Amino acid sequence: MAQSSSSDYIFKIILTGDSGVGKSSLLSRFTRNEFSLESRSTIGVEFSTKEVQVDGKTIKVEIWDTAGQERFMTITKHYYRTALGTLLVFDLLKASTFQNLNQWYNEVRANAGIECSIILVGNKVDQRHKREVLYENAKRYADERNIPYIETSALDTTNVEQAFRSLIADIYRNWI
Ligand code: GDP
Ligand code: MG
């Protein structure tokens, strides 16, 4: 992790998961408390920052976002390199995004450091009636890989703060 003058530490975290699962929405909800029902496709790679307090220390978190359709192809190793953590996101309303998790998980494990913290995030929990992925199945997937699982809604804010904070706290425990 890098040091900076205004904050005590800088953490780079990345968003991974299929296109449309809500990565950019989670990012804008967490960093700006904004949400839009319109999908704005992410062009290339973007990042936003937010300062978070952990243990009385100020951590500047750089959250990197990319368009999911670039998966396995043009996402450069650069995106993963130096990432200390990732939110591995799928869409609770779309089983295929859950089935694709393994490929994302392997990408992270292959390209980010072995120490990279991961939290599994099932997004869009506000639409319970349209759910295609059961809590038990997602939880089992996470347990098998020894990573936490959380269900979020960027739309109604459920657990968004908690998801990012839990990842940041995990990184803090690993590195500081
Ligand atoms: P990305 O491609 O992974 O960055 O996904 P986006 O953030 O662009 O979101 C894709 C679509 O899902 C957009 O229409 C969002 O408004 C919608 N969306 C994102 N998060 C949620 C959520 O928590 N609940 C619901 N109902 N829709 C969401
Ligand atoms: Mg996006």
From TrEMBL:
Localization of this protein: Membrane
**Which keywords, in A-to-Z order, does the entry hold?**
GTP-binding, Lipoprotein, Membrane, Nucleotide-binding, Prenylation
Question: Does the record bear Heme in its keywords?
Answer: no
GO CC field: membrane
Membrane topology per the record? Answer: Lipid-anchor
Highest taxon, organism lineage = Eukaryota
For this protein, what is any one GO molecular function term?
Answer: GTP binding
Q: Where are the transmembrane segments?
A: none
Does Membrane count among this protein's keywords?
yes
Q: Hey, which family's this protein in?
A: Belongs to the small GTPase superfamily. Rab family.
In its UniProt entry, what is this protein called? Uncharacterized protein
Portion of the parent chain present: 1 to 176 of 220
